[in-house]
Amino acid sequence: MSEGPYGREEPPAGTDTAPQLALRPALEAVLMVVDEPATEEHLAKVLGRPRREIAQALQELADEYTVQGRGFELRQIAGGWRYFTRPAYAAAVESFVLDGQQARLTQAALETLAVVAYRQPVGRSRVSAVRGVNCDGVMRTLLQRGLVEEAGTEPETGAILYRTTNYFLERMGLRGLDELPELAPFLPEAEAVEGDSQEGVPSFDPDAPDTEADDKTEL
Fold first, then answer.
1. How many domains does the chain divide into?
2. Long-range contacts for 12-21 (Cβ within 8 Å, ≥24 apart)?
3. What span, in angstroms and rounded, lies between the C-alpha atoms of 195 and 129?
4. pTM for this prediction
5. Which CATH number is 134's domain given?
6. Which parts of the chain register pLDDT below 70?
Protein backbone atom coordinates (compact mmCIF):
# COMPACT_ATOMS: atom_id res chain seq x y z
CA MET A 1 0.00 0.00 0.00
CA SER A 2 1.22 3.52 -0.76
CA GLU A 3 0.18 6.87 0.70
CA GLY A 4 -1.96 9.09 -1.54
CA PRO A 5 -1.68 12.86 -1.97
CA TYR A 6 -4.05 13.46 0.95
CA GLY A 7 -2.47 11.06 3.40
CA ARG A 8 -4.75 8.12 2.61
CA GLU A 9 -3.33 4.73 1.71
CA GLU A 10 -3.93 3.72 -1.90
CA PRO A 11 -3.77 0.18 -3.36
CA PRO A 12 -0.99 -0.57 -5.86
CA ALA A 13 -2.12 0.15 -9.41
CA GLY A 14 -3.50 -2.83 -11.30
CA THR A 15 -4.01 -5.11 -8.27
CA ASP A 16 -7.31 -4.35 -6.52
CA THR A 17 -9.04 -2.22 -9.13
CA ALA A 18 -8.61 -4.33 -12.30
CA PRO A 19 -10.96 -7.16 -11.23
CA GLN A 20 -13.70 -4.57 -10.60
CA LEU A 21 -13.65 -3.27 -14.16
CA ALA A 22 -16.10 -4.42 -16.82
CA LEU A 23 -14.22 -7.25 -18.52
CA ARG A 24 -14.81 -6.63 -22.21
CA PRO A 25 -14.00 -2.89 -22.15
CA ALA A 26 -10.94 -3.69 -20.03
CA LEU A 27 -9.76 -6.22 -22.60
CA GLU A 28 -10.28 -3.70 -25.38
CA ALA A 29 -8.25 -1.09 -23.51
CA VAL A 30 -5.35 -3.47 -22.89
CA LEU A 31 -5.31 -4.87 -26.41
CA MET A 32 -5.20 -1.36 -27.85
CA VAL A 33 -1.70 -0.83 -26.40
CA VAL A 34 -0.01 -4.23 -26.88
CA ASP A 35 2.85 -4.42 -29.35
CA GLU A 36 2.64 -8.20 -29.73
CA PRO A 37 -0.16 -10.78 -29.30
CA ALA A 38 -1.27 -11.01 -25.67
CA THR A 39 -1.80 -14.50 -24.24
CA GLU A 40 -4.96 -15.46 -22.38
CA GLU A 41 -2.80 -16.36 -19.36
CA HIS A 42 -1.23 -12.90 -19.23
CA LEU A 43 -4.56 -11.13 -19.68
CA ALA A 44 -6.09 -13.27 -16.93
CA LYS A 45 -3.24 -12.34 -14.59
CA VAL A 46 -3.30 -8.58 -15.15
CA LEU A 47 -7.10 -8.35 -15.04
CA GLY A 48 -7.54 -10.76 -12.14
CA ARG A 49 -10.00 -13.04 -13.92
CA PRO A 50 -10.10 -16.78 -14.67
CA ARG A 51 -8.56 -17.75 -18.01
CA ARG A 52 -11.82 -19.39 -19.15
CA GLU A 53 -13.66 -16.11 -18.59
CA ILE A 54 -10.99 -14.23 -20.52
CA ALA A 55 -11.11 -16.67 -23.45
CA GLN A 56 -14.90 -16.45 -23.65
CA ALA A 57 -14.89 -12.64 -23.58
CA LEU A 58 -12.21 -12.46 -26.28
CA GLN A 59 -14.18 -14.74 -28.58
CA GLU A 60 -17.36 -12.73 -27.94
CA LEU A 61 -15.54 -9.53 -28.88
CA ALA A 62 -14.13 -11.11 -32.04
CA ASP A 63 -17.59 -12.34 -33.08
CA GLU A 64 -19.16 -8.97 -32.28
CA TYR A 65 -16.68 -7.08 -34.47
CA THR A 66 -17.36 -9.47 -37.35
CA VAL A 67 -21.14 -9.15 -37.06
CA GLN A 68 -20.89 -5.36 -36.92
CA GLY A 69 -18.60 -5.27 -39.96
CA ARG A 70 -16.00 -3.19 -38.15
CA GLY A 71 -12.86 -2.07 -39.99
CA PHE A 72 -10.72 -4.05 -37.55
CA GLU A 73 -10.85 -7.55 -36.17
CA LEU A 74 -9.62 -9.38 -33.09
CA ARG A 75 -7.63 -12.46 -33.99
CA GLN A 76 -5.91 -15.26 -32.12
CA ILE A 77 -2.44 -15.51 -33.60
CA ALA A 78 1.07 -16.62 -32.58
CA GLY A 79 -0.23 -17.87 -29.22
CA GLY A 80 -2.12 -14.70 -28.26
CA TRP A 81 -4.75 -12.13 -29.24
CA ARG A 82 -4.28 -8.84 -31.06
CA TYR A 83 -6.21 -6.31 -33.15
CA PHE A 84 -5.67 -6.31 -36.91
CA THR A 85 -7.02 -4.29 -39.79
CA ARG A 86 -9.76 -6.24 -41.52
CA PRO A 87 -8.36 -7.41 -44.89
CA ALA A 88 -11.13 -5.69 -46.81
CA TYR A 89 -9.80 -2.30 -45.62
CA ALA A 90 -6.07 -3.00 -45.90
CA ALA A 91 -5.75 -0.76 -48.96
CA ALA A 92 -7.06 2.25 -47.03
CA VAL A 93 -4.58 1.70 -44.19
CA GLU A 94 -1.72 1.17 -46.63
CA SER A 95 -2.54 4.40 -48.43
CA PHE A 96 -2.67 6.39 -45.19
CA VAL A 97 0.22 4.90 -43.21
CA LEU A 98 2.67 3.80 -45.85
CA ASP A 99 1.92 6.52 -48.40
CA GLY A 100 2.70 4.07 -51.18
CA GLN A 101 5.99 2.89 -49.65
CA GLN A 102 5.89 -0.81 -48.80
CA ALA A 103 8.47 -2.66 -46.75
CA ARG A 104 9.91 -5.31 -49.02
CA LEU A 105 12.17 -8.33 -48.84
CA THR A 106 14.26 -9.56 -51.72
CA GLN A 107 13.26 -12.74 -53.52
CA ALA A 108 16.40 -14.32 -52.07
CA ALA A 109 15.33 -13.36 -48.55
CA LEU A 110 11.89 -14.88 -49.06
CA GLU A 111 13.43 -18.12 -50.33
CA THR A 112 15.85 -18.24 -47.39
CA LEU A 113 13.01 -17.56 -44.94
CA ALA A 114 11.04 -20.45 -46.44
CA VAL A 115 13.95 -22.86 -45.99
CA VAL A 116 14.41 -21.80 -42.37
CA ALA A 117 10.67 -22.13 -41.69
CA TYR A 118 10.48 -25.69 -42.99
CA ARG A 119 13.87 -27.00 -41.82
CA GLN A 120 14.31 -25.22 -38.49
CA PRO A 121 16.46 -25.28 -36.51
CA VAL A 122 18.93 -25.07 -39.35
CA GLY A 123 22.41 -23.67 -39.97
CA ARG A 124 23.45 -21.12 -42.59
CA SER A 125 25.47 -23.52 -44.70
CA ARG A 126 22.60 -25.98 -44.94
CA VAL A 127 20.28 -23.20 -46.04
CA SER A 128 22.89 -22.16 -48.61
CA ALA A 129 23.12 -25.75 -49.84
CA VAL A 130 19.36 -25.96 -50.32
CA ARG A 131 19.27 -22.64 -52.22
CA GLY A 132 22.49 -23.28 -54.11
CA VAL A 133 23.96 -19.86 -53.22
CA ASN A 134 25.55 -18.22 -50.17
CA CYS A 135 22.86 -16.92 -47.78
CA ASP A 136 24.93 -14.78 -45.36
CA GLY A 137 23.58 -11.46 -46.61
CA VAL A 138 19.92 -12.44 -46.65
CA MET A 139 20.18 -14.21 -43.29
CA ARG A 140 21.53 -10.97 -41.87
CA THR A 141 18.50 -9.14 -43.29
CA LEU A 142 16.10 -11.65 -41.75
CA LEU A 143 17.80 -11.29 -38.37
CA GLN A 144 17.60 -7.50 -38.53
CA ARG A 145 13.91 -7.67 -39.47
CA GLY A 146 13.21 -9.93 -36.49
CA LEU A 147 11.88 -12.75 -38.68
CA VAL A 148 14.50 -15.31 -37.58
CA GLU A 149 16.57 -15.74 -34.42
CA GLU A 150 19.40 -17.88 -33.11
CA ALA A 151 18.32 -21.27 -31.74
CA GLY A 152 21.45 -22.69 -30.12
CA THR A 153 24.31 -24.48 -31.81
CA GLU A 154 24.82 -27.75 -33.65
CA PRO A 155 26.43 -30.24 -31.19
CA GLU A 156 28.82 -31.75 -33.74
CA THR A 157 30.23 -28.53 -35.22
CA GLY A 158 29.25 -25.69 -32.88
CA ALA A 159 27.62 -23.86 -35.81
CA ILE A 160 24.79 -21.46 -34.98
CA LEU A 161 21.29 -22.72 -35.75
CA TYR A 162 18.35 -20.49 -36.69
CA ARG A 163 14.57 -20.62 -36.36
CA THR A 164 11.64 -18.37 -37.16
CA THR A 165 10.22 -15.99 -34.53
CA ASN A 166 6.77 -15.18 -33.19
CA TYR A 167 6.97 -12.02 -35.29
CA PHE A 168 7.24 -14.27 -38.35
CA LEU A 169 4.05 -16.07 -37.30
CA GLU A 170 2.34 -12.73 -36.74
CA ARG A 171 3.32 -11.36 -40.17
CA MET A 172 2.28 -14.60 -41.87
CA GLY A 173 -1.05 -14.73 -40.01
CA LEU A 174 -0.34 -18.12 -38.42
CA ARG A 175 -1.15 -19.45 -34.96
CA GLY A 176 1.77 -21.85 -35.10
CA LEU A 177 4.20 -23.59 -37.42
CA ASP A 178 1.74 -26.47 -37.84
CA GLU A 179 -0.35 -24.10 -40.00
CA LEU A 180 2.41 -23.69 -42.59
CA PRO A 181 1.34 -24.92 -46.05
CA GLU A 182 2.42 -28.44 -46.96
CA LEU A 183 5.57 -27.45 -48.86
CA ALA A 184 8.22 -29.29 -46.87
CA PRO A 185 8.17 -32.41 -49.14
CA PHE A 186 9.48 -30.23 -51.98
CA LEU A 187 12.64 -29.28 -50.07
CA PRO A 188 15.68 -31.61 -50.06
CA GLU A 189 16.15 -33.76 -47.00
CA ALA A 190 18.95 -32.74 -44.64
CA GLU A 191 20.98 -35.80 -45.64
CA ALA A 192 20.89 -34.73 -49.28
CA VAL A 193 22.85 -31.58 -48.53
CA GLU A 194 25.02 -32.92 -45.71
CA GLY A 195 27.98 -33.32 -48.01
CA ASP A 196 27.89 -29.65 -48.94
CA SER A 197 27.65 -28.47 -45.33
CA GLN A 198 30.28 -26.03 -44.09
CA GLU A 199 28.79 -25.61 -40.61
CA GLY A 200 32.21 -25.32 -39.00
CA VAL A 201 32.99 -21.94 -40.55
CA PRO A 202 32.89 -18.85 -38.26
CA SER A 203 29.60 -17.01 -37.95
CA PHE A 204 29.12 -13.91 -40.10
CA ASP A 205 29.15 -10.37 -38.78
CA PRO A 206 25.50 -9.29 -38.23
CA ASP A 207 26.50 -5.63 -38.47
CA ALA A 208 28.22 -5.93 -41.83
CA PRO A 209 26.52 -4.14 -44.77
CA ASP A 210 24.04 -6.19 -46.77
CA THR A 211 25.21 -6.61 -50.35
CA GLU A 212 22.23 -8.65 -51.54
CA ALA A 213 20.96 -7.12 -54.80
CA ASP A 214 18.12 -9.40 -55.90
CA ASP A 215 14.87 -7.96 -57.26
CA LYS A 216 12.67 -6.87 -54.38
CA THR A 217 9.48 -8.76 -53.60
CA GLU A 218 6.79 -7.82 -51.13
CA LEU A 219 6.70 -9.84 -47.89
1. 2
2. 14/46, 15/48, 18/46, 18/47, 18/48, 19/47, 19/48, 19/49, 21/47
3. 9
4. 0.51
5. 1.10.10.10
6. 1-16, 97-103, 183-219
